[in-house]
Amino acid sequence: MALKEGINQENAKKINKIIRDEGPRGVKTQIQGDAIRATSKSRDDLQAVQKLLKDSDLDVAVNFTNYR
């Protein structure tokens, strides 16, 4: 099996739904090509989203780029 960088649209939509349904209220998400961008005024909310995604049973490996 070959490794791929980024996520496909189907998985991006699943991740967005998880964040919308189970994540903190102030977090907004955008699908940007093969990545998802989550924004919030609260750093704690973004860290809660990271924990939520790490604990979720996803078909893809997630990795995070923080505070650029």
Automatic annotation (TrEMBL):
One cellular-component annotation, GO: cytosol
Q: Name one Pfam family in it.
A: YajQ
Assigned keywords, A-Z: Nucleotide-binding
Give the top-rank taxon of the lineage listed in the UniProt record for this protein: Bacteria
InterPro entries named in the record? UPF0234-like_C (IPR035571), YajQ-like_sf (IPR036183), YajQ/Smlt4090-like (IPR007551)
User: Which GO molecular function annotations are given, in alphabetical order?
Assistant: nucleotide binding
Q: Does the keyword Nucleotide-binding apply?
A: yes
| PANTHER family noted in UniProt | UPF0234 PROTEIN YAJQ
UniProt-recorded name of the protein: Nucleotide-binding protein
